[in-house]
Amino acid sequence: MAAIQPILKRFSFLIVSNAFFSVDTFFFLSGFLTCFSFLRLIERQNGKITAFFILKFYLHRFWRLTPAYLIAFMISLFLSPYMGNGPLFPDEGFESPECKSQWWANVLYINNFYKADNFCFGISWFLANDFQFHIFAPLILIPLGLNKIFLAIGISIGLLATNVLLIVLNLYYKHIEAAQFGQNFKEFFMDYYIIPWFRMAPYIIGILYGYTVMVFKKRPIKISKFLNIIFWMITLLFTSVTVFGLYPDALGENPLARETRILYQSLSKLAWSIAVGYIIFSCVVISTDGIVNSILSWPIWVPLSRINYSAFLIHIMIIMTFNTTQEHLLHLQDLNMAFYFLAELVFTYSFAYLFNLFFEQPFVAIEKFLFKF
What was the pLDDT predicted at 182? Predict the structure, then answer.
């Protein structure tokens, strides 16, 4: 642990140690794309929203996520004991024996509530939250689809205000606001990190940005170059403060005041989502020839995006296999970590291609076939 401390105290290392906002980016994108696809489908139906339409909305999400997710979970549950050996490798594999009797909670996407202290398939809390957001998304999406814009905005503001208030109360009374660099991270994870009403802000902001981009793609607006630069500077400020704002806590010498930590935890995800949203809005609506948009439009992202979900499902097994089969200590040096990261990235996407081919795409094809009728 003594060797790790100097690395944790580096200002630049907060990009890694405080990378939790990558998850919020995925929540934002989920809300953004859900809104985009929902409104496009409504357009095809001439603005009609029926009970069958909403039922298909839920069934599509369940079918899109669950088969590949369940297969990956079963692989981790039953086959991980045979994935390696060594002094650190768990005899029972990567899942506890109790997971064999509570797998159904994962399938129903309630595993972040049911026996969360015995968590199964570590990354599954994200899918549980995402599906729970999807269940309540029509509260905002239906008013948007019916052009009840002020109603949708009012519901969104109400949910966001509730989100901030609940975070403040939860952290204040449970004293877990400093857990990211403290000793009570387990309580932070169980009582805050995996609970949907504490994580919903990025998803809601994503929905609102999805609607905004869709509207202004049809009715383009002109924003002066100067004003766009100002908005980009605000975006950079928001992302910098959210990622590096906890540096005093990481340093450990002059930690932040408790009130400041609570303020940070309650508003940081909101600020990050607004910043990510403006990056998308600027690239898609305002300036399509900028360097950021050019990078995000590289053709290489297209094939990778098609196997991203498979990569997400199996990456934890790749990392766990590598880490637990080591027979010697790892040297925490920048160059070593870079090589480890690149190797695991290549292995993850290589296996993700195969997983996608055999276990994800067949179910996508089945859904397309069934929904023809």
Answer: 64
Radius of gyration of the chain (CA): 22
Question: What integer pLDDT is reported at residue 21 of this predicted model?
Answer: 93
CB-CB neighbours of 322 under 10 Å: 15
Q: Note the pLDDT tens digit of each residue in 14-34.
A: 898 888 999 999 999 999 999
pLDDT digits (tens, 9 = 90+) for 61-99: 999 999 999 999 999 999 999 999 988 899 899 999 999
| CB contact at 8 A, 57 and 139 | no
Question: 319-373, pLDDT tens digit by residue?
Answer: 999 999 988 887 778 888 889 999 999 999 999 999 999 999 999 999 888 876 5
CA–CA separation, 68 vs 60, rounded Å?
Answer: 14
Helix 124-136 to helix 21-44 angle (10° resolution) is 40
What would the mean pLDDT of 188-197 be, rounded to a whole number?
A: 90
Residue 65 token pair: 């996520």
Q: Residue 240, Cβ neighbours under 10 Å: how many?
A: 11
Q: String of b and e for 59-98 (b: at least 16 CB within 10 Å)?
A: eebeeebbbbbbbbbebbbeebeebbeeeebeeebbbeee
CA-based nearest residue to 208, from 151, 263, 264: 151
Closest CA to 138 of 61, 196, 82: 61
Res 5: pLDDT = 66
Which of 128, 130, 119, 263 minimizes the C-alpha distance to 189? 119
Backbone φ and ψ of 71, nearest 5°: -65, -45
